[in-house]
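Hey, sorry to bother you again with one of my protein questions. A protein chain has come my way and I'm curious about its shape. It would help a lot if you went through both lines with me. I owe you a coffee for this, so here goes:
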Amino acid sequence: MTSPEEPGDTGTSLLAPGWTGSPAASATGDRAYLRALLDAEAALTRAQAALGLAPAEAADAVSGAADPGSFDMHALAERARAGGNPVIPLVADLTEAVGTEYGPYVHRGATSQDILDTAAMLVAARTLDVLLPDLTHTERALAALAAEHRDTPMPGRTLTQHAVPTTFGLKAAGWRALVLDTRDRVTAVRDALPVQLGGAAGTLAAFGAYGAPDPTALPAAYARELGLRAPLLPWHTLRTPVADLAGALTFAAGALGKIAADVLALSRTENGEVFEGGGGGSSAMPHKANPVRSTLIAAAARRAPQLAAVLYGSMTAEDERPAGAWHAEWEPLRDLLRLAGGAARDAAELAEGLRVRPGVMRGHLGLTRGLIVSERLAAELTPVLGRSRAGSLLTELAARTYTEDRTLGELLAEVPELRGLDLDALTDPARYTGSAGALTDRALERR
């Protein structure tokens, strides 16, 4: 029987339905990290060969041996305990696989953190590359909802209570704006992900010792091999890249979590204004169609800030290379990539399958018996009655709508001074959505 802790591709987890099976899951699994570590090692030899610091045959030999399928991940994980990171045993195994002639060119001049940091950036880049298309799917689905429901009136809610009318189009446009904000932040971070190369203490000294006339040219060559950015300085204890990743991923989870929170509230049985197209079932109640996508996104949004806190805390890294601060980043960063990637997958499914009930929304506008337009009436009645009289009248009639179980419009019709007003129009919530339509149009102009 296999051990439940045996490292593998980890594209699934029994307790993580939010990211299991997502593109981000396979992009962040143990095998994906092993691939990134090997890619980082092979690229380093190729970069040195490109600058004449290693034979081309050595670059070919290291690249050929850097096959994840040829390495025992379980053994690497076990042996990583001895030195505190997996690069040390991996370098030993890769050197042996390359052979005696070119083995000395494996990892030459680098330190373990160079390789592991670069691999982390590769994993992040590959994860963001599969996360961004899900954001595009989400944005397009929300744009369609916003356009379709530009003028669909619904209650606006503040502090959980009905406030004034709004439109579902404006709400969907707001969701889309958050998704576009997320896209912009994730894209900027993705484009800035750097390689790490500094050697033992960030001075590139070993590369000079091995014959590089200008060691500062090596990071750029390394970056070209991997499709990442060349850093201005080695960043062993200058953790801006990781902090920026933490911020973008946490923003992504929170922005998608806002959408999920709204859907959860609007899809309550007593609301029923929207529902997920493919709701989940219950083990005990056959009638249930739970908003599962929204639930999983909301869970990710709650976890992400705590993971980011670890990454931000690790910026306090002492000396030229730290003990513990760097090590503390590895698992939270992977978890954050998974959570954000899984949330993006679920958000696309949620947005594309969301069902809207305009009739239910319109019906809910009448739950307060017309009081939802009291703000408008205060403005409209002041020129007729004066500010003091208009305020006291609306306060009185608001109480009577409940004690007499009558609508505000009915009570206003009995006020002699108001007989010349079109009270039907003034008390129609659908006619008091302000600039919701124009705001929706403006939001949809953003690409």
Observations:
- Confidence is low (pLDDT under 50) at residues 1-7.
- The chain is about 60% helix and 5% strand.
- Residues 112-148 form the longest helix (37 residues).
